[in-house]
Amino acid sequence: EAEGAGFAETWWGEAWLTALEEGALDAARLARGRGYAERGHVDAITVTPGLVLAYVQGSRPRPYRVQVRVRTLGDAQWARFLDAAADRPGHIAALLDKEMPQTLADCGVPLLPGPGDLEPHCSCPDRGHPCKHAAALCYQTARLLDADPFVLLLLRGRGERELLDALSRLSAARAARAAGDRRPD
Question: Which of 91, 138, 96, 92 is nearest to 115 (CA)?
Answer without folding.
Answer: 138
